[in-house]
Amino acid sequence: MNRLNSRSLRLAVLVIFIVGLLLLALGGYLTPLFRLTLNPIITVEAWLSSRYLAIHDMITVPKDVARLQQRNAELESQVTQLQAQVIELQQRISEAQVLYALLDFARSRPDNQYVAASVIGRDTNPFISYILIDQGSDAGLRHGMPVVTNQGLVGRIDAVTAGGARVQLVTDSASVVNVRLQSTQVEASMTASVTGELALQMVPTSASLSVGDVILTSGLGGSYPANIFIGQISSVRKRESDLSQTAIVQSVVDFVGLKAVLVITNFKPVDLNPLIPTPAK
Amino acid sequence: MANLIALPLLVILSVFQTAIVNRLPLLHGTADLILLTLAAWSLHERVTSVWFWVLLGGVLVSYASATPFFAPLIGYVVMTVIARLLRRRVWQTPILAMILITFLGTFIQHGLYMGALFIRGVTFNWRESLNLITLPSLLLNILLAIPVYAVISTLAEWVYPGELEI
User: Fold this and answer.
1) Contact, A196 vs B25, CB < 8 A?
2) Between vectors from CA B45 to CA B43 and to CA B47, what angle results, nearest 5°?
3) Pairs of CB atoms within 8 A across A/B
4) ipTM here
5) Residue A207's domain spans which residues?
6) What is the C-alpha separation between A254 and A250, in angstroms, rounded?
7) Nearest-CA residue of chain B relative to A196?
8) Is residue B164 part of a domain?
9) Is the residue at B165 inside a domain?
10) Contact A124, B17 (CB under 8 A)
C-alpha cells in the first residue's frame, strides 16, 4: 500500500514537473536558459556543417566544374550555330529585299518579260566593266539582251553559256548608249571612261543641259528599249570655244554593290552592222 | 603530278579571283591571283612544269574575261620568260625576285590590257589609267606577293621534293 502511494506520488511530482517546465517554456521564462545551452551547440554544429560542406565541395566540385564546362561548351556551340543562322537569315532577308524590289519593278512594266539572275563575279581585267551572272541560254538569255535593275539600266548581255552569261555594263569604256533628256527631249550618246565615269558626249551647245536633268534610254540604234532610267546629270562642261558640250552623268545604279539583275528577254536588239557602209577598197 | 594539280588549283583561283578578289578593288585596281601564282611557280628552282601552268592560267582568265584572248596569255608568257631568266641570276633572293616579277608582270599585263583597248578603238586617259588602275593594282599585287610566294613555294616543295643527303 505504501509502495503504491509512493509510486503515485512520484508520478504526480513528475507530471507536475513536466507540466511546469512546459508552462515555463511556453511562457518564455526558459528562453535565456535555452539560449545559453543551445548556442554553443549551434555554433559547433554550424562549424561542423561548414567543414563538411567544404570537404564535400572539395570532393564533388571538380565533377561539377567539368559538367559546367561541358555545358558551357554545348551552349557556346549553340550560340555559334544560332549566330550563323542569324547571319544566314539576314543574308536571305537582304537577298529577298533585292528580289522584292526587282519584282516590283517587273510588275510596274508588265509589257516586258524578265529573267532574274544573281551576280556571281566580275571581270578580271580592271580596265573593263563586265559582270558574270548565273543564268544563261538555258534560261532563254541571248546576246544583246538588255539588263536592268529596279533602279535603272545596267548593261546588256555580251556572251552566253548554258548556265551563265557575261554582261557589259554601261560603265564599260567600250559601251555606247543612246539617251535622251526627259525634260528637254535632247538626244545624245552616253559613253564611259575606263574608271566608269559616265558622260554625255557631243551634245550641241544649243541644247540646254542642267544639273539634275533625268537621263533615259532613247531606243535609237535598237540596242536598248526606250525609256529606261539611267541617272541624272551631275555636272556640265561647256566652254564658249567648243562646238559641243559634255555632261557628267551620275548613274542611279550602284554598280559596285550589284547583287541581282533582271534580263529583259522579249527585247530583240537590232544589229545595225550590215547597214553601216564599209569603205570601198 | 604538277600538271595534275594545276587544273584544280588554277580553276579554284580563277573562281576566287572573279567572285571575290575582283569585288575588292583599291580605287579601280584589283589584285591578280593567277599572275602571282604563275610568278611564284615560275621562280621556284625545282619546278619544271611551267608552261602548262601558264597556258592553263591564260586560257582560264581569257575564258571568263571579255578581254581579247591573246592579252592575258601573252602577258603571262612574257612574265614567265622573265621569271625563268631571273631565276637563274638572282635565285638566292627569291623574295626580291618575286617582287620584281610582280612589278614587271603587272605593268606588262596592264600594258597589254591598254593595248587591247586601244585596238578596239576605246579612247582613254593614260595618266588616269595609271593612277587609278595600274598603280593600285600594283600595290595590291605586291602586298599579296609574299604570302602567295610562301604558299606556292610550299606547294612546289611538296610536288618536287628535294633529294636527301646521306
Assistant:
1) no
2) 85
3) 87
4) 0.90
5) 176-254
6) 10
7) B28
8) no
9) no
10) yes
DSSP sequence for A128-145: S-EEEES--GGGT--TT-
pLDDT digits (tens, 9 = 90+) for B31-55: 999 999 999 999 888 888 889 999 9
What three-state secondary structure class fits A126? coil
CA end-to-end span of chain B = 26
**pLDDT band, residue A279 (cuts 50/70/90):** low
Task: Select the residue from A123, A124, A255 to test the B interface by mutation, using most B Cβ atoms within 10 A.
Answer: A124
Q: Measuring CA to CA, which residue among B124, B81, B102 is closest to residue B34?
A: B102
Cell of B87: 631565276
Tracing cell 511530482 back to the chain, one arrives at A13
| CATH (domain of A194) | 2.40.10.350
Within a domain: A202: yes
Is residue A150 situated within a structural domain? no
Q: Is residue B166 part of a domain?
A: no
* Count of structural domains within chain B: 1
Q: Of B22, B64, B133, which has the smallest distance from its Cβ to A127's Cβ? A: B133
B76-102: string of b/e by CB count within 10 Å (b at 16+)? Answer: bbbbbebbeebbeeeeeebeebbbbbb
β-partners of residue A121 are A132
Residue B39 lies in a domain: yes
Closest CA to B141 of B102, B112, B108, B104: B102
Compare all CA atoms of chain A with the CA of B30 and give the residue at the minimum distance. A126
AA identity, residue A265: T
B79/A202 Cα distance (integer angstroms): 41
Cell 611538296 maps to which residue? B158
As for how many domains chain A has, the answer is: 1
State how far the Cα of B79 lies from the Cα of A150, in Å rounded to an integer: 43
Question: Residue A169 forms beta bridges with which residues?
Answer: A155
Which residues in chain A touch residue B22, judged by CB atoms under 8 angstroms apart? 121-124, 126
**Per-residue pLDDT reduced to its tens digit, A135-177:** 989 999 999 999 998 888 999 999 998 889 999 999 999 999 9
Angle at the Cα of B23 (from B103 to B106), degrees rounded to 5? 10
How many Cβ atoms from other residues are within 10 Å of residue B160's Cβ?
A: 15
Domain residue limits at B14:
2-159
Give the three cell numbers for residue A5: 502511494
Question: In this structure, is residue A32 part of a structural domain?
Answer: no
C-alpha–C-alpha distance, residues A214 and A117, integer Å: 27
Cβ–Cβ under 8 Å, residues A115 and A135: yes
